[in-house]
Design brief:
The strands form two sheets. This protein has a four-stranded parallel beta sheet with strand order 1-6-2-3, with no helix packed on it. A two-stranded antiparallel sheet has the order 4-5. It is globular. It has 80 residues and is an alpha/beta fold. The chain contains three helices and six strands. It has a single domain, classed as Rhodanese-like domain (Oxidized Rhodanese, domain 1), CATH 3.40.250.10. Helix content is 30%, strand content 22%.
């Protein structure tokens, strides 16, 4: 069964150091990934997935978000 946790960004590194083999789900926009950067959870023995919750310059809800998420068939802990 998949467990989902919402952890403040300042605590993610500590959580991943203590709990390996997780998935970090980054739901920011592509613009945010390009301007701020993307995390690399593999450095902490976890995986990073990138699925935008909002898309485009107008930040419209990604109607495909749930489908994109379910298509990943994730069976691990997820941190977003």
């Amino acid at each position: 069964m998949t467990e989902i946790f919402n952890i403040p960004s300042k605590k993610v590194k500590d959580f991943l150091n203590d709990n390996s083999n997780n998935i970090v789900l980054d739901v920011r926009t592509e613009e945010e990934w390009n301007s701020v950067g993307k995390p690399d959870a593999e450095l902490l023995n976890s995986k990073t997935l990138f699925i935008s919750l909002l898309v485009g310059p107008d930040r419209i809800k990604n109607e495909n978000f749930i489908k994109e998420f379910l298509d990943k068939k994730i069976l691990k802990k997820i941190i977003f």
